[in-house]
Amino acid sequence: MDVQKAMLIYNGKAGQKDVYDSLKKCVPVLASHIDQLIIMKTKRSLHAKEICEKYGDQVELVIILGGDGTVHECINGLSRLEKRPVVAILPGGTCNDFSRSLQISQDIQEAVEQLVKGEMVSVDAVKVNEDYFINFWGIGLVTETSNHIRESEKAILGRVSYFLSALRTMKDLKPFKYRLQRDHEMEEGKAVMILVTNGSYIGTNPLPFIDISVNDGYAEIVVVNEANVTLLKDIFEIGVLEEKNKDQHIQLFRAKEIYIETEDELDVDMDGEVYLNTPCKLEILHHHFRMLKPSQT
Ligand SMILES: Nc1ncnc2c1ncn2[C@@H]1O[C@H](COP(=O)(O)OP(=O)(O)OP(=O)(O)O)[C@@H](O)[C@H]1O
Question: DSSP H helical segments within the chain, as ranges?
Answer without folding.
Answer: 19-31, 47-55, 68-79, 97-101, 108-116, 141-148, 151-157, 160-170, 229-236
